[in-house]
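FORM 12-B: Structure-to-Sequence Request
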């Protein structure tokens, strides 16, 4: 049984991939900026909810949701593989990515401060 599974896997790997044709909607693609992503999952699929941080206070961060993408777990695995390969290539060229350090508050230059 194990030999048959290996033969089936090799056969599946040797099947040539078909060329994909991508068609754009007449009205163009929807575009959105995101600096936040939330995940929700079921047994069948993964939902990515992209949003933008709108406000930050001492108590909370307010995120405005912009777009939701739902995909199968298989497609999520393919996406993860593409992201990892491209991040690796980017970092090999540009150096490692690091999370930025954010100061405690926005710095206002002296020229914009009101005299007290």
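FORM 12-B RESPONSE
SEQUENCE OUT:
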């Amino acid at each position: 049984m194990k030999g048959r599974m290996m033969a089936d896997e090799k056969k599946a790997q040797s099947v040539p991939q078909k060329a994909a044709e991508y068609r754009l909607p007449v009205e163009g693609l929807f575009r959105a900026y995101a600096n936040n992503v939330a995940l929700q999952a079921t047994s069948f699929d993964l939902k990515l909810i992209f949003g933008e941080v709108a406000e930050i206070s001492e108590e909370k961060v307010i995120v405005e949701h912009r777009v939701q993408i739902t995909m199968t777990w298989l497609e999520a695995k393919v996406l993860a593989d593409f992201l990892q390969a491209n991040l690796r290539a980017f970092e090999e060229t540009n150096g490692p990515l690091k999370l930025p350090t954010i100061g405690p508050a926005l710095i206002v230059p002296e020229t914009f401060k009101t005299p007290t």
